[in-house]
Amino acid sequence: MKPIFILSTALMISLSGWAQISTDTTFQYEWNPNTEIWSLFNRTINTYNQDNKISELVQVMYDNRWENYSFRAYRYDNDHLLTEEFEQFWNDAALMWEDNYRLSYYYDESQHLRELLHQNIYDGNIRNSLREFISYYPDGLQKEKIVQQYSEKGWEYFSRNTYSYAGNLLSREVISNWVDEAWEPAFQYEYAYNIQGQIIERTKSRLTGAEVDPITRHEYIINRNNHLEQILSFRWNSRKKQWEETSRDLFSSDPTGDIRTSIYQLALRKGWANYLFSEYPQNYHFDLTQPVETDCSFFIQTDPLRRMAVLQFENPENEMFIVRIIHESGKLVKSTVTSSNEVKIDKEKLTAGLYYVELQGNSLFSGKFSVE
């Protein structure tokens, strides 16, 4: 196995002789509660042409060596606008990269992003998956995003995000689902900022008719040097009518404000428990006028005594998700819409091979698993 080969191949294809190339690497470690030490488990290698990110290689640590996981290439037009993302996953059994996903960007004459087209690629075939349509207020601030999913019937509405602002800062975001041929408000985010315009709080609530029920809250702690120090996460306990801590991110920065490390901890009864440690490259920072995006993890659970396997994923707020599971040959194994945190799969349909998972909620998440 040659884990860096694809990186050099992509550079040969996409770079010209005058390009100014740079790379950086982010490392992630997971906490071992038995040995009480951090264990290195993945790294992300980003490559840039001047200020434009042109590739992202993710590798995982296995048996004390780096193994490929995914590779993503970014393409731009002559105005340096991002036009395409192209993703591949590593097939460990075949020892080769396989095309998986393409995201295309479309702009209007004012260079406002107007449409995103998500497509899956399996066995050399490109298939429509999702598309997003974006509209703006006259001042250029984003007004609305409509998401459609592709099915046998063609393009169908799935969700809509509408945005409200206080000045130039996002103050409220409402997420609606398409139900019975109409938009039905489901969730809202409310944002608060300090006097410098840095985000200090984000609250998510469930909308049920005229009822607004709090679900989660994130507090962003900014120190006296205007550097991000902590993100505290809370969940609303409806029985006790109070917020309860669930997790926190602790950040360390250099004197310029660039974040160098972060620790993700879970709130347990006995105190804070380490979970993930990240080590960032130089010049890494968060835009504190925007909320920090989170990842979504999933795993497959099987039981030899049962006919069904279960895909479980994080969905604590019971959001609507489009879930797709596709075999490497391109065969669609499962496609469903759910507000649960799990999807059952007939094990007879899980023949040997590589499978791709796509989770589309308010954000799009993807991953893979293999069956031997």
Written description of the protein model:
With 372 residues, the protein is mainly β. It has 2 domains: 5-294, Lipocalin (Beta Barrel), CATH 2.40.128; 295-372, Immunoglobulin-like. The protein has one helix at residues 5-14; strands at residues 21-32, 37-49, 52-62, 65-76, 82-91, 96-107, 113-122, 125-136, 142-151, 154-166, 169-179, 182-193, 199-208, 211-222, 228-237, 242-253, 259-268, 271-279, 298-301, 308-313, 321-327, 332-338, 342-346, 353-360, 364-371. It has an 18-stranded antiparallel β-barrel. A 4-stranded antiparallel sheet has the order 22-21-24-25, with no helix packed on it. Strands 19-20-23 form a 3-stranded antiparallel sheet, with no helix packed on it. The relative contact order is 0.10. Residues 1-18 have low confidence and may be disordered.
